[in-house]
Amino acid sequence: MKAMILAAGLGTRLHPLTGKRPKALVPVMNRPMILWVMEHLKTHGVDQIVVNAHHHARMLLEYLSEKNNLGLKVQVRLESEILGTGGGIRNTADFWDGGPFIVANGDTLSDIDLTAACKAHTAEGSLATLIVHDRPDFGKIQIDGRGRITDISRDVIPDRLAFTGIHIMDPAIFDYIRPGVFSDIIDCYRELIREGKPPLAFVSKGHRWHDVGTPESYLAVHGDLAGDRGLILGQGCRMDESAGFVDWAVVGDRAILEAGTELIRSVIWEDVHIRQGVRITDSVISSGSTVEKDIEHGVI
To answer: What is the largest CA-CA distance in the chain?
Structure first.
């Protein structure tokens, strides 16, 4: 099966962490975010992936060219001008064969049952299936008793379902997306609803899901993944025996933690140097930084 990872966005909400690298390469538990998405897709039978790229595109292209990518065949489509979700998907029309395919946001990490969603999509014969779930803080999707989407609001509305950022599509969807121009795939879905060809909703329950779009949600996903393990150390770290952590901490490769340092629910990227006695709380420290004073609720 084939899939697409949407990775061309500017990562504005995650700034300043995306200032020097694309969001897809921002580390989660010391692994680039995109690897988590790729691993999830592979678990459900995907063996070929296309990734669109714009922001720091060459960096992403070089990374995917140099790695074995979990044994997956990977293509990268560079966008000199950002095309949006609809335009980006339309730009890959020649990649697909005649069967359905998965499209996943590059900043959404989950363990949703994609196999079950694909089976539901095939059984219903819909142009598109959106995987949705019950998240009141994101609820914009209204469905009818048959599981068809009847409205996608622009604002959150009580008692509606939330889109997970994962869709299954039929190649016939390309007839409804203009080529070569910026567009939002959600606007395409709204047009299908108006034309009486509504997308299907697959309601997922009992799964993990994180939209890693902001510094706050970035820390939250680490709290979820690292919470039970406590301290996660990358390769080549030098941590003084008097250094410690509270609740959990993730430390990147080759980081140096001097005597008396303390990490509290924080993420430290690679090549960071934390000076003696410094305490870092609920913060993210990006690569190559030297920290000489306490930081609380910071992103540097």
So the answer is: 66
